[in-house]
Amino acid sequence: MLNWKKAIVIRAFADTPDFLGGTDFLGSLDDYSRVFNKARNLGFEGVQLYLEISTGLLNLSTDGEILNEIASRARDEGVGFPSLEIAPLQYSFTADDATERQKGIEVVARAMEIARSLGSSGVLVIPGYVGKMWDATTDQVDYCDAYERTLSALRRLTEAAEKLKVAMLVEPIWNMFLLSPLEMRQLIDDVGSPFCGVLLDTGNVTLYGFAEQWIRILGDRIREIHMKDFRRQVGNVDGFVPLLAGDVNWPQVTVAARDSGFEGYWIAEQFPYAHHGNVILQHTFEAMNRILDST
Questions:
Q1: CB count in 10 Å sphere of residue 175
Q2: Which of 147, 13, 49 is CA-nearest to residue 93?
Q3: Of 155, 160, 184, 204, which one's alpha carbon is 20 to 30 angstroms from that of 38?
Q4: Which pLDDT belongs to residue 136?
Q5: Which residues are 198's β-sheet partners?
Q6: Long-range contacts of residues 13-17, Cβ cutoff 8 Å, at least 24 apart
Q7: Cβ of 232: how many Cβ atoms within 10 Å?
Q8: 55-108 pLDDT, tens per residue?
Q9: What global pTM score does this model have?
Q10: d(Cα 4, Cα 233) in Å, to the nearest integer?
């Protein structure tokens, strides 16, 4: 029996229906406790924490005492932590500015230390972008430069990752970069460390591919899976829909994961509904049960 665990992003518990949720509702340690308690009561085994760069209770400067308390409160509720998510696109490995790239390396290095303190086995890494689909005014980065800069940054961080035993998990997003599972596979192999892998997002890759093919091609390089669904005909961010409402072929995805020997967290990346927002939590858990327990 494969060791599959059901988790959910902490932003799913937000009190507003903003796109991608938010963390403004996490102003105190008691707020974290309430999330952990609710998650476990719903049946989730893990919660993916979100690390801000400079704001909020959990950020790059959060001291060890608070980190230990967050971890302790999760343990008290019987909730584990998958990889730690770093606020995306607020740091960069791909930028043309070398100073900005160095800052990006420092952000991920610090995030790995925080993940170790929390008891999380990895950090979710979004290396930067070639362009942004949702913002045509964004300066383009040369694709070849983006690849080489990302590879260089991951290699530089490998020593720290191996020392801390915290994996760097690269996620494919809509950044006009790492658009093929073959390319993602090559990147991970070029880094060449057991502490560099992939966090596959099923919804993100559905715009231009098939999640089950990504799983088969990447194999054991995939350490965690973000569960999102997407309708291709919509073709923009409005195409992200609740689990089972989009074009992700969940039976094929789970078969591919089983055949690849995937073990670990399936993390629902869902956000509150516009009305009665917290209903998304129960709907998501029920959908995950149907998807994962029928395999």
A1: 23
A2: 147
A3: 204
A4: 83
A5: 170, 222
A6: 13/38, 13/39, 13/278, 13/281, 14/271, 14/272, 14/277, 15/272, 15/277, 16/272, 16/277, 17/271, 17/272, 17/273, 17/274, 17/277
A7: 11
A8: 999 999 999 999 999 999 999 999 999 999 999 999 999 999 999 999 999 999
A9: 0.96
A10: 31
Q: What is the pLDDT of residue 16?
A: 86
Domain architecture of the chain: domains with CATH? 4-293 (3.20.20.150)
Q: How far apart are CA 60 and CA 79, in angstroms?
A: 22
Kindly write down the DSSP assignment for every residue of the chain, as one continuous string.
Answer: ---EEEEEEGGGG-SS--TT--STT--SHHHHHHHHHHHHHHT-SEEE-EEBSSSSSSBTT--HHHHHHHHHHHHHTT-B--PEEEPTTSS-SS-S-HHHHHHHHHHHHHHHHHHHHHT-SEEEE----S-BTTBTTSPP--HHHHHHHHHHHHHHHHHHHHHHT-EEEE---SSS-S-SHHHHHHHHHHH--TTEEEEEEHHHHHTTS-HHHHHHHHGGGEEEEEE-EE-TTT-SGGGEESTTSSS--HHHHHHHHHHTT--EEEEE-----SSSTTHHHHHHHHHHHHHHHT-
Residue count (the chain): 295
Say which amino acid occupies 22: G
Residue 225 pairs in a beta bridge with: 200, 266
